[in-house]
Amino acid sequence: MSLDLPLVFTVLMGVAILAYTVLDGYDLGVGMLMPAGDAREQDLMVASIGPFWDANETWLVLGVGLLLVAFPAAHGVILGALYLPVAAMLIGLMLRGAAFEFRVKALGWHRELWNWLFWFGSFLAALAQGLMLGRTITGYAGGFGYWLFALVVAGGLCGGYVLLGATWLVLRTEGELQRKAIVWARWGLAWVALGVALVSLGTPLASETVRDKWFDFPRTLGLMALPLATLASGAWVSLELGRSDWKPFAGAVAIFALAFAGLAYSLYPYLVMDRMTIWQAAADPSSLRVVLVGALIVLPFIVAYTVFSYRVFRGKARAGLYEH
Amino acid sequence: MDASDALHLARAQFGLNIGFHILFPSITIGLAWLLVYFRVRYARSGDPAWLATYKLWTRIFALTFAMGVVTGIVMSFQFGTNWPGFMNRVGNVAGPLLAFEVLTAFFLEATFLGVMLFGMERVPGWVHVTSAVLVAFGTTVSAFWILALNSWMQTPAGEAHTPAGALVAGDWLAVIFNPSFPYRFVHMLLASGLTAAFLVAGLSAWRLLKSGGDAAARGTLRTGVLIAAVLAPLQIVAGDMHGLNTLEHQPEKIAAIEAIWHGGKGVPLELFAIPNQKTHSNDYSIAIPKGASLILRHDPDGALEGLDAFGDDIPPVAPVFFAFRIMVGAGFAMLALAWLGAWKTRRGAAAPRWLLWTFAGATFIGWVATLAGWIVTEMGRQPWLVTGILRTRDALGAVPDAALGASLTGYVLTYGLMLLAYIVVLTHLAGAGSGESR
Fold first, then answer.
1. A54–B406: do the CB atoms touch at under 8 Å?
2. Which residues in chain A touch residue B422, judged by CB atoms under 8 angstroms apart?
3. Which of B95, B406, B428 sits opposite A283 (nearest CB)?
């Protein structure tokens, strides 16, 4: 029996990217919400993501690592085409990572500066990731319209991260901050609804390939399950905000997973839209097999100790959690 | 701008990133094990002074680790943005090594660092100690994989070709344990140990200068000094063995290190010179006759290959020549300083202020040696990216110069800010007098 290794690695890479967007998504979202909280709340917000953000960002390294390992031919094309947004994202991630550590050790206007850089870095990274996504959907086509489309996608992704961040805070905080987070989450939800609607309408317009894949009767009927489920998740988040601590976050994750599935369906089997399929870009089977065996052995451990870490730090964030 | 400008920009950018990145792992690999030591001392004794020591250095570690993580993410992307030809040509070998680093090391260290930093009151003591061990283990495993890849790029082994001509790994053990790997791995681990030891000694000295009779700082000064006193001579031996290994596998690098333009018997040792890449000779040379042959062949009339044996495939000689001397100079300075410090603080004696100032001044001496060493080994490999397999210029991507230039500016500004803040915060933390203060 022969395994379709490029397909297996596409799934693995997809899982890594989805895990990244959800996990780093909530901490980038918390970063983007920083200016909305007062000084005490900001400390709590940062404390709620403190034990997790390092590991969350590792999923990004795994995602790009799998791209690099499994699809060397596409890797250069994609990262070359995304050169500037990637550079912007990296600078954003560095600024917020540094700010995260520096802000707790600074006082006065220094602290304010790092708070601002934490917000700015989170926002820059989220915006750049959205641009990367938007550019990828259209196969890096040039022209004003395509960039405008990428900007709309970027706006939508920022909204998604804000929703994740706000619902994360609903889950991990209590009292006044939690009440504020519920309001932020409602704004984030409206923002996401607009973003998803615009991207869903814009993608078939921007790409003929996507149009053909979605509007192909009778397959279209089955595919309608995706937008309907997304809509239902959104409604669920809206209903549960203020009633449940964890359901809004779960709903936000569901929205991300569904939107991701839609995008993955739009792109598949291309890695570079209309130009390079996963099989054309794949590395030699011998090295893929080595990585696959390694990944299958190690990933259960990674999942196990990640679950362990979330169990250790379950419950509400407290002031002073970041005293280390 | 022509192709060589783009090459220079891409190399400047990658060199800047990798040079900035290595500053932080070079501390964390060694410091992580020191933290295990501090943590175990506290677990055994219950002495709050050890706890304060552990907490202070954990905060410094967390800061350094975060800087390493975020600058490391940059590197993972720049393989593709700056050197797409690298993955196209040798991705079947390099890819799995990088993937194993992410899978076996990055998640491990990042996750358990969270437990280590925030979980002391939430998990049993033995779980917390285990977390510290796993973080340290993760940093060392990470170094293992990345140095396996780097060493393979220096001295490739174990590769094979598919019928279609693609380069693949024929024998993974031969790839990983390639000829220069054991030497480079040991050399880097010792370098990190020394860098961390001088950081600990230097910041402890700074603390003693600022706040006087702090027993914990006296303890950590002594710890750092003793570790350095043991590691420095080991590093000199390991470095010498690494050099002889390089002579065997990359003679052109040794020729550049010693600025030997013309090979032959009884080659002189250049004590001082300004290597001239245009005339293929040394300006202002002061040399010991037959010295290089004596050192490298242990025979005054021994034969050595010169750069002339390698045609155009030679590295830029002057940077390699000078960086090597800086590295060796820093290495011997560390040895002298560590032994002096160990002698002056023997049997609990308090270090005199001039010695404290010297150690405070030498806080980052490990960085100097590490960076110089990396310049020697990486520039000494040029014009090859993978020796004998892929030239650096053939791996270059098609990114416009303007994009390279703009992003380079962004990186320089970001790194400048981060480095400044890092050093300010470190000295502030160390000078603050007590581990509990914010």
1. no
2. 98
3. B95
Query: What ipTM is given for this predicted complex?
Result: 0.82
Q: Which residues 397-426 in chain B show a CB within 8 A of chain A?
A: 397-399, 403, 406-407, 410-411, 414, 417-418, 421-422, 425
Residue B264 DSSP code: E
- Which of B78, B111, B112 is the best residue to mutate to test the A interface, defined by the most A CB atoms within 10 Å of its own CB? B111
> Cβ neighbours of residue B229 under 8 Å, at least 6 residues apart?
B338, B339, B341, B342
User: DSSP letters along A57-92, please?
Assistant: HHHHHHHHHHHHHH-HHHHHHHHHHTHHHHHHHHHH
**B384-386/B390-391 β-pairing:** antiparallel
Tell me how far apart the alpha carbons of residues B261 and B270 are, in angstroms, rounded to a whole number: 11
**Measured between CB atoms, does B322 come within 8 Å of chain A?**
no
CA distances from A264 to A15, A164, B84 (A): 11, 20, 25
**Predicted confidence pLDDT, tens digits, chain A (324 residues):** 467 888 999 999 999 999 999 999 999 999 999 888 888 888 888 888 888 888 888 888 888 888 888 888 888 788 888 888 988 998 999 899 888 888 877 777 788 888 899 999 999 999 999 999 888 888 888 888 888 888 888 988 999 999 999 999 998 888 888 888 889 989 988 888 888 888 888 888 888 888 888 887 778 888 888 888 988 998 888 888 888 888 888 998 999 899 899 888 888 888 888 888 888 888 878 888 888 998 889 988 988 888 888 888 887 777 655 554
Task: End-to-end CA distance of chain A: give it in Å, rounded.
Answer: 53
User: How many CB atoms neighbour CB A4 within 10 A?
Assistant: 12
Taking CA atoms, B12 is separated from A138, B53, B82, B411, in Å, by 32, 39, 11, 11
In CATH, the number for domain A5-312 is 1.20.1630
* Tokens at A267, concatenated: 């792109």
Q: How confident is the model at residue B3 (pLDDT cuts 50, 70, 90)?
A: low
Contact A283 B108 (CB under 8 A): no
Contact yes or no for B180/B155 (Cβ under 8 A): yes
Q: Could you give the CA distance from residue B400 to residue A219 in angstroms, rounded to a whole number?
A: 43
| Cα–Cα distances in angstroms (integers) from residue B132 to residues A61, B47, B62, B204, in the given order | 23, 18, 12, 22
Q: Which of B197, B282, B191 is nearest to B238 (CA)?
A: B191
SS3 state at B433: coil
Strands (E), B242-383: 264-265, 269-276, 281-288, 303-304
Confidence at residue A320, expressed as pLDDT on a 0 to 100 scale: 59
**Which among B92, B108, B414 has the least Cβ separation from residue A287?**
B92
> Cβ separation of A51 and B118 shorter than 8 Å?
yes
CA atoms within 13 A on the CB side of B68: 20
Strand B281-288 with B269-276, pairing: antiparallel
- Name the residue ranges covered by the structural domains of chain A: 5-312
- pLDDT single digits (tens) A167-192: 999 988 888 888 888 899 899 888 88
Three-state DSSP state, B213: coil
- Please calculate the CA angle B16-B242-B305 and round it to the nearest 5 degrees: 95
Q: What chain A residue is nearest to B72 in terms of C-alpha separation?
A: A61
Six-digit token string for A210: 């996507």
Chain-chain contact of B87 with A72 (C-beta, under 8 angstroms): yes
Concatenating the DSSP letter of every residue in A27-66 gives: HHHHHHHGGGS-HHHHHHHHHHHTTTHHHHHHHHHHHHHH
Query: A34 CB contacts (<8 Å, ≥6 apart)?
Result: A42, A45, A115, A118, A119, A122
Q: Which amino acid is at B130?
A: T
